[in-house]
Amino acid sequence: MMASYVIHGACSLFLSISACARPAAPVATSPAAPASAPVSRSAPAPKPAAPALKMGAERFDQYLPLLRGKRVGLVVNQTSLVGRSHLADTLLAQGVAVKTIFSPEHGFRGEAADGATIKDGKDARSGLPVRSLYGATKKPTAEMLQDLDVLIFDIQDVGTRFYTYISTMHYVMEAAAEQGKSVLVLDRPNPNGFFVDGPVLEPAHKSFVGMHPIPIVHGLTVGELARMINGEKWLAGGKQCALTVVPVQGYTHATRYALPVRPSPNLPNAHAVALYPTLCLFEGTDVSIGRGTDAPFEVAGAPTQPRTRPYSFTPRPTPGSTSPPQNGKLCYGIDLRQLPMTESSGLTLRYLIDFYQQSTAKDKFFGKYFEQLTGTPTVRQQIIEGKSEQEIRRSWEPALGQYKQMRQKYLLYPEA
Predict the structure, then answer these.
(1) At 353, is the secondary structure helix, strand, or coil?
(2) pTM for the whole thing?
(3) Parallel, antiparallel, or unpaired: how do β-strands 150-154 and 182-186 relate?
(4) Helical H runs in 243-338?
(5) How many angstroms separate the CA atoms of 380 and 365, rounded?
(6) Which of 80, 127, 142, 75 is nearest to 104 (CA)?
(7) How many CA atoms lie within 13 A of 177 on its CB side?
(8) How would you write the pLDDT of the chain (416 residues) with one tens digit per residue?
(9) Strand, coil or helix: 207
(10) Which residues pair with 263 in a beta bridge?
(11) CB 170 within 8 A of CB 94
């Protein structure tokens, strides 16, 4: 049975990202004054400290009773933390019968390069088998699930349609529905969850980087999206899985949340996560967005851009990008690392339009992958025709408006 929860919480500022694996908590917009400090009659009263967020995985009272006597499979990666401990270790310590770990893109420990095939293996610490869901098999097979009762999905998302963890979640739900297994989603905040934007994917352009008729920035947590996938019957054959979502306590869609660990090798900080919805569209062009540099998703450039561009870089192989676009070539472009967070957040086409207009090889600017990212053939054509961002955005509005109405049915958290 699908569980529904609504949690009321407070807004917060971005946290700084650190390598430590502690749960992130909102930061109050202003510190509370000491009890002895005078308060001006004309000044507003100090705001109380915002409550700490409590991840779904930390709310043991909500889900441990559901796991008693159950054989459990975990769909997890390096973001699946309970304090400083991995969820797998935490549940084993609680006596939960964890039998299998399923690994998405980038692997169980989140160290594999983008697009690298993930292989089956064994977790050295727990001894549990690790089954890959990013390679020849993206959907759990009947054999993989035969000795399981419950599948737990606990992976940090960044709120865009083309981030593949949500595609893995779709296939996990689909396999569970077909094999009579239940799915438990332990929810986490969406760092880009405070807005909805972009063209809605058209069915002809469905792929692993876009499986659902949702916009580029969907404005949902993974728990809310799971409810939408189930409720709209998007699984194969219109099936629905037995779904339970454990929500984040203290979260709202206005909460600004920075991730305590990087969600994938090429999203190293909060700034890159904020720029990701905008810069990822360049992955369908001849423009490098800094894979193979120390600033992935914070810079953009290509050999086919004017040499008068203010910044240049040369991508080289790194552990997180073993064969980066424009490998070894001098790229001319822009450096967005100093762009304030307020200007980095959101989705804009201005960089994409500018880079196309200034390209010295316009016929080679767009690749076949571009439509898989935009979810529609119209954006490419509109840019080629010289349409402004405002004109392109107006063409999104009918479908985007319908999506926003549908989204309201599946929200677990208030908008503000």
Answers:
(1) helix
(2) 0.86
(3) parallel
(4) 270-279
(5) 10
(6) 75
(7) 22
(8) 444 333 333 333 233 333 333 333 333 333 333 333 333 333 444 444 456 899 999 999 999 999 999 999 999 999 999 999 999 999 999 999 999 999 988 777 655 556 666 678 888 888 899 999 988 899 999 999 999 999 999 999 999 999 999 999 999 999 999 999 999 999 999 999 999 999 999 999 999 999 999 999 999 999 999 999 999 999 999 999 999 999 999 999 999 998 999 999 999 999 999 999 999 999 999 999 999 999 999 999 999 999 999 999 999 999 889 999 999 999 999 999 999 999 999 999 999 999 999 999 999 999 999 999 999 999 999 999 999 999 999 999 999 999 999 999 999 999 98
(9) strand
(10) none
(11) no
By residue count, the chain amounts to 416
DSSP element (H, E) containing 373: helix 369-374
Contact call for residues 248 and 54 (beta carbons, < 8 A): yes
- Pair 273, 190: CB distance under 8 Å: no
Tokens of 330: 């001098």
